[in-house]
Amino acid sequence: TLESMGFALEVHPTAVGDFRDDGEVVAAYYDEMRDLVKRASGASRVFVFDHTIRESGNTNLNAAAGGAAAPVPRVHCDYTHDGAPRRLLQLGDAGIFSHLKGRDLSADEVAALAAGRFAFINVWRSIDADRPVARNPLAVCDENSIDDDDKFLYELRFPDRTGENYSLKHSDAHAWYYYPDMTADECLVFKVFDKKPDGPRFVFHTAFDDPRTTDASPPRKSIEIRTIAFYDDKP
């Protein structure tokens, strides 16, 4: 579960017909993912703020609307201890929490959200309705197997901001998991930051070369959704 391991496989069919249609994804899929993350996490409010389509064989790191980026074969976690609160405030400045009260929130109101417990939670799924994932699946690491000294920080430079990710030094102690042959009706839900200090907080993940993959294996086609969840309990 999310509370015990920081990740969970959920069966969750979708009504979306075309994931390359950004309008349909935002209008329909965001609502589906909001409900899924609320149920899986126990959060009282969930906001979806971003998504990325990825397809193996591509080499571009980013993609325009309707396009696909390459999978990321790099062990990482999307946020750091200090970077996650900064990202929450940036999203507040961008107005994504406006529908809470039907208006943009003030800086004080966003700061009040940041003072409580919040978590960044991602949802990853295949968008190939005909074939299970056989190439470049996603693996996740049990945080209980990671020593704090294994983590190191690196920066991501964007035109409008600088983000921070964690990566890991290699250790044979790390326990990695993946779900083989995931179908389009399954979702991998995982935390990339939780303000709650006890329990899993940072789920490291990466695409990888499955040794079962053959030349005939179809390309991976996937979507990842990024959400922020707010809880009624204090961190």
Automatic annotation (TrEMBL):
<comment type="similarity">
    <text>Belongs to the asaB hydroxylase/desaturase family.</text>
</comment>
<dbReference type="InterPro" id="IPR044053">
    <property type="entry name" value="AsaB-like"/>
</dbReference>
<protein>
    <recommendedName>
        <fullName>Methyltransferase</fullName>
    </recommendedName>
</protein>
<dbReference type="GO" id="GO:0016491">
    <property type="term" value="F:oxidoreductase activity"/>
</dbReference>
